[in-house]
Design brief:
8-stranded antiparallel sheet, elongated, mainly beta, Jelly Rolls, two-stranded antiparallel sheet
Length: 251
Amino acid sequence: ISLIFSENVALRGKATQSSQYKGEPWNAFVGASNAIDGNLNADLTKGSCTHTDTENNPWWRVDLLDSYIVTQVVITNRGDCCAEQLSGVEVRIGNSLRQDGTVNPLVATVSTAAAGSSYAINLTERVEGRYVTIIAPGVNRVLHVCEVEVYGYRAPTEENVAVYGKASQSTVYPGAIAYYAIDGYREGLWSQSSCSATNNDFSPWWRLDLGRTHKVFNINITNRVEYPTRIDGAEIRIGDSLDNNGNNNPR
């Protein structure tokens, strides 16, 4: 079993920007990290927005510290002034720091965003990267944002996370405990003592507790060699409920 779950991964990232506004007194309150502090306050004077100097092609970037599949980016625009500065900015995501990450693949361009609003970019195609960069292309531009949320999950690996779970089943046939189905051994022969089995039950079941809620994207089941048809018609159900021993979860 391989698993994914989506969260705002920007919160534990590291932010930087092309420059920092130098005008007093706000120069001390417009650092790049303000955009990933979890505070959606869109008033720059409250100390939770970023602001570059006026320059050519200013940018802001978050390093997610690992490669992620990004499903959504949400940008909160400044609300107290100059909301039009966000119009036309590009969002780029990738694994390269060439030219400060500004040449990674373009995934979206912000058309317009109202003052203080949050502009959501939903990525329906697979987008993978460690760096999320927002750039305001052009001459004598200013870039300021008040929050950048990046939702996604680590790029999947082939690690079998089922081995960290806890297995149980409706009944136990002697010598065929539930744990055998997650012991990492794929031999399908009963004689190797690595298959689980129930007694002859009405609607027998086997269940794995993953320890926390995840999004499941792949399951591999190794069948028993000697009686391969016993698994015919078996249902796979996944969810967060233990009602009816988990058998009421979605199929």
